Write the structure tokens for this entry.
Amino acid sequence: MSFDLVLKNARVIDPSQDLDGVMDVAFAAGKVAAIGKGLPDGTETSDLTGLVVTPGLIDLHTHVYWGGTSLGIDPDAYARASAVTTCVDTGSAGPGNYPGFRAHVIGPARARILVYLHVSFAGIYGFSRNIMVGEGHDPRLMAERDAVAVALSDPETIIGIKIRIGRHASGPTRIAPLVSALQVADETGLPLMCHIDEPPPSYEAVVDMLRPGDVLTHCFRPFPNAPVHGDGRVKDAVLAARERGVIFDIGHGMGSFGWGTARAMMAAGFPPDVISSDVHALCIDGPAFDQVTTLSKFLPLGMSLSEIVRASTEAPAKALRRTELGTLKPGSPGDASILSLRRGSFDLADVCGEIVTVPERIFAEGCVIGGSWFQKAEAIPA
């Protein structure tokens, strides 16, 4: 068999196949064609000695409706910068403006974009440095019928339903928008992703309503509405939710990752299921920056590189119900991320201003989408 592209001599980490070792990955006709040692060269071959190849990274929480919402960033520019091959947009668009998102951003993008559709008619429409309007404050914007119709119209791209709950997002309506969103999710047969910010309502009240397969994002947020008590104990409602199959996602963003919470959760044996950046216009220049920076914060917290890769490949693919993603199994979509693990002295900040200096961190060196290079670091030979 002839190959279009072969990545040689990299450390390949693919938790979906329990792989972690030096080997080659080959692509043909847009798919992963083979994985193993000593594969023959392809039409294009790159020697990646000293680098890490993983399945294409999935960022489960992004905002990439660039130009359509004030918080949107360019998906392809982000994919190049962070070696992300699948951006999951979480509620930027609602049923009223999803067609524009589909036509003007999702369609033209080279990076894969999947969507949690917001129940709010216009999605997250008032989110900037100068304007902050919680879309859940007005119950008239909860467009349940429209959301069902739009979600069912594009099952290839719309993979779930999004709602935001908390003092800032839902304000006086408190937990009521979650009731609407759960009904939409039930009607469409889709999982739900729920944002939580400051109380009211409480962390416990929100997580108690989530079903197996639903995602609680911002799961390591700082006080108030942290998942741990002041003494570091994980809240009983959080433990019960994991037991019944709720998925816990980081969703770093501008206000949702605290070192103190993270240390307490990890010490209690409660790592995240999924690590995501919640990248948007207000956090892309810090403190979240991008997916690889967010992933790097879990190295000093005791997660192995393989565990971190799983939380951005196999685990989000399962949450999305798209298990053909997040893997390098032959026949899977031809996506791969090329990373480096560099040693030095690196400052990593949380959303509260605490800075932790770490001796190593992850960097993006390139990515392959559809079996061909989408971004390649200058240091990588042809």
Summary: The chain has two domains: 5-54+331-351+358-376, 55-320. The CA atoms of residues 40 and 243 lie 46 Å apart.
